[in-house]
Amino acid sequence: AQSVTQLGSHVSVSEGALVLLRCNYSSSVPPYLFWYVQYPNQGLQLLLKYTTGATLVKGINGFEAEFKKSETSFHLTKPSAHMSDAAEYFCAVSSNQAGTALIFGKGTTLSVSS
Amino acid sequence: EPEVTQTPSHQVTQMGQEVILRCVPISNHLYFYWYRQILGQKVEFLVSFYNNEISEKSEIFDDQFSVERPDGSNFTLKIRSTKLEDSAMYFCASSQEGATVNTIYFGEGSWLTVV
């Protein structure tokens, strides 16, 4: 069975500050890990993904995440927040088999103030 | 860039009515999914579909729900006898067969409001 826990349902940062959104996972098989972003009234957009290989993965819009197996974590970071980053962020896990479902965390709302 | 498209974007229906939500997955994808997101809650998996049959479903996907691939391009979710608690955003998604990464691409969603 797989599950995802996102610590903090709401994170607030100032423009230019570091963004850190936390995600911990549980998986009985090697996980594939994803971060999706949802802007208001829009669908889910893939930010980045980890499959195998390099544990630090870079995504769109300057975001990156590091897979830490020992900590079962996949935290999302961005060095400098921009107002346009305000959105809902979802961490998700799946297995490496094509067609298996994504299991999502409850999401973290990121607010960015000027 | 190819995308998953969904119709309608918003539908209001009366309790007890049947609703069909439509999706056009990305053309070379063979795995199709429906997820839902009740307002303020997390995105939940409903069902996955491959080779004209359900490959996986969650406990949410009971007899009230059904999916169909009526032709070569559309993928539909039917909700029979809708209830107030079916009000949610329903996301269609698709992924490639045999992909080394099970990357799932989502549509923009269909808002269903049951009154």
Q: What overall geometry of chain B do the principal axes of the alpha carbons give?
A: globular
Q: Globular, elongated, flat, extended or rod-shaped: what is the shape of chain A?
A: globular
Rg from Cα of chain A: 13 Å
Q: Structural class given helices, strands, pairing of chain A?
A: mainly beta
Give the SSE string of chain A. Answer: EEEEEEEEEEE
Strand runs of chain B, count: 11
Report the sheet with the most strands of chain B, covering strand number, pairing sense and barrel closure. Answer: 7 strands, mixed
How much beta of chain A, percentage-wise? Answer: over 45%
Give the helix proportion of chain A (percent range): under 10%
Report the sheet-strand fraction of chain B.
over 45%
Q: For the residues shown, what is the average pLDDT of chain A?
A: 92
Low-confidence stretches of chain A are none
Order of helices and strands of chain B: EEEEEEEEEEE
Largest interface: A-B, 26 and 29 residues
Mean pLDDT of chain B: 91
Main beta sheet strand tally, sense and closure of chain A: 6 strands, mixed
Query: What's the tally of helices of chain A?
Result: 0
